[in-house]
Queue: 4 jobs
Job 1
Amino acid sequence: MVAVAIMGATLMPRALFLHSHLTHGMDRRVHMWQTLANLLGASAINASMQIVATTALFRGAVDLGEAPAVPGPLFGGLAAFLFSVALFAASLSASAVSVETGVLVFRYATGRRFSAAAARLTARLVNIAPALAALHLGASPVEVLVYTQYVLSLVLPVVMAAAVRWSWHMLGAVGRAAALAGTVFVTAMDLYSFVAG
């Protein structure tokens, strides 16, 4: 489940939707390289954070609030600071992407434009309410983090399939094969994690 949650956190369905909207009309090659750079960058940051955390937490788990301080004794103060900055930047970017995607979904679903402030506030409340409810019911912050990313991963095949469908006519043979393989892989991972429990 954790591996699938990491996939959901890295590939963020909302990011695929927002990126497709923001790059509409962009040259295909520029779009492809930009997407590859974004995904490789996100993967590298996630991998480095996981390697640091795994190395530092090898002897036992800590609370999510203590996690940024864990690399300090092992790697030094700068590592702890950079780990904290990476967590904060990842949180801010995920939050911003989520809110902006919510604004677009409101607009496309209703066919109307909302005030930016009202749409962002509504999207923020929709994003945060389930997490706050889970925390209030006694879930740990780590559980909330893992389960929310897991749910994102379960939604990912739908978003990927739609993106493949919409861009099918623009893809060459290699692009089509890669898009289908990626969608099948993510779907298989989700199904396996769901069945294996």
Job 2
Amino acid sequence: MKAAFLVILVVVTYGVTVTAFWMTSPKSLTIYPSMDSYSWQSIPHANNGGSNNFEITSASQELNKNMRGWLAFNISAIPSGIWVINAELRLRIWHKTTSEPSELIGDSTGRIYAVYRLTQPWTEYGITWANQPAYTEEHHTTAAVPPGQGGWEGPILWMEWDIPDIVKDWLSGAGNYGVLVRDMQENSTILYSTQFFTRDQVPNSGYYPRLIVTYVTPQEVALFSIVLILEGFLIISIWRRRESPRAQSEV
């Protein structure tokens, strides 16, 4: 019974505090891109800045139709010194290819797209396949293209990547040149493609790509730690008071 009482006391006390912390302390900031563009391998000097779509494609070298996309985010609105809990890149799907074997086109559902941190600058109306910036594989992340189909009128379908380490890199001083999105297995024998909406020529911000950063401040973490320590002393005090009469009675 003694052990059970102690376990219940600890679980209830700390459980309430931890739950309250996670329900009230984390904050989210939604950042829309400052630049977005994509380009074709088949037309290496073409630029698509200002387009209303952002296309990621894998196709064979014979077809020469790989496509990659780039986005950049101004993260100056993120408070300094915060602790990043998560950062999620979200792209709203416009259209996906479906299976058409006779046309050598496949369903892009389940294709793995990766996000990489760029290491060189670029411009929205200057980037092409031929001059695309370098990127690093450090902290890159992947996600599978979800089932379903999007569209201008809906349904609303998002593809999401968790990129907290990339955002932490930027906040720690790495050059913030944005990210690259590409198919992990380019040069496929049939064409797989997914088109996403951009921030250009769309009805409203509901279509925009976005970076959602969830964070807590050091002050909130410090306060949380202090509360846990004080609760620890409280638990010990309650336990000692509960045990003291028993010890005296045994004497």
Job 3
Amino acid sequence: MGFLGDLWGFIVAPLYYAISALLIGWHNLWGRVFGEESGASWVLSIVGLTLVIRALLIPLFVKQIKSSRNMQLIQPKVKELQKKYGHDRERLAQETMKLYKDSGTNPFASCLPILLQMPIFFTLFSVLNNAAREKPKGILSKEQATQFGEATLPGGISVSDTFLKASGHAPTMVLAAFLVLAMTATTFLTQRQLMSKNMPKDALTGPYAQQQKLLLYVLPIVFAVGGIAFPIGVLFYWTTSNLWTMGQQFYVIRNNPAPGTEAERAKKERDKAKALKKGLVPEEEVLPEPEPKRPAQRQQPQRQSRSQRKTAAPKPDPGSAESDDGSSPAPPATPDSSASEPPAANGQAITPKAKKKNVPTKGVPNKNRKRR
């Protein structure tokens, strides 16, 4: 068989003994009520076996719920990383794994309960299938395997028959079809309940949402196609397991919903209604107070040289300035040349030109004057 076959045999060998021991224990209990050869005692033994297995898987289910919730809450951050490092796949993978590590999220933890159930399912299938062929597995004896293979329910329905091997027996085909539909419907409703009530709006887009949608539609089809080849005893196990999962998930979503989901809003409304019914004042949601605005930091003046200060200083506009009493300022006084300059020798004032030459202008012949 090779290495993989030996590894699989090493894993399932203890499961054969454990499952067959649980099955025989429940059969001994129900055999006292319905008889050891009755099909009802074997079906109820399978149901009891399922309940024990699912109860043992509760810690893994809680871990799965926490991991799924963390995956939902960090989806906005994953989208930001995809926008930032979308061109570099290696850097995107590194940053994504770092985000998972910092948030304590394991992307594979949500699949862990399903992976652990698969060996149990195949082991149970092998035990029931071999018992139908009178080939015992584990601690199941030859006599008990024969009883299981020949056990029938009311209507002549054999526990070891399948939909395909019913040989046209209508009650067997009807019961098998009903169990296949129930198994498919419970799988679909469980996944739909998770997506519609316990996933934030931000988590309904992106790769995680695509994965959930894939499980929503693909798993029921897989179970519907494969269910017609399962023995009725296995169908009872799988349908009971799905009902347990749906009820367990409904309880978790109702009492401990994820933040920012429709289930959380519904829980707050129920809590408020219960408080009003008891005459208590419901606790209002306290919004965080906005942080006070800090004053802008005063900018220190930069040191400037004297030439820079003279250049930056605005020059006053004498025309626009006003006096203290509000009246317009008087025009600047012009120097009076006649008052400031001394009189000439002959009593005539000296013009600026004459002042320059210090020669009186009157009585002096002008060479540039035109002759008449």
Job 4
Amino acid sequence: MRATHASIGYRLKLDPKVTADQRGRGVGVAIEEYAKTSVKDRAVAAKKLEEAVLGKEKIVSMPARKAS
């Protein structure tokens, strides 16, 4: 029940301290042990990282190469 409660609270973006208090555990335990991310959440995170690394959002620009 604690894992379900933590995961639903995480998905609803509820305050982690409040939901941890409801379960009678600390926030660290709540996040590390109980809250599970969904496949969709992981896919969105992977897509954002991919865009940052491969193109859509440039983090670092490389200097132009000189033609030899």
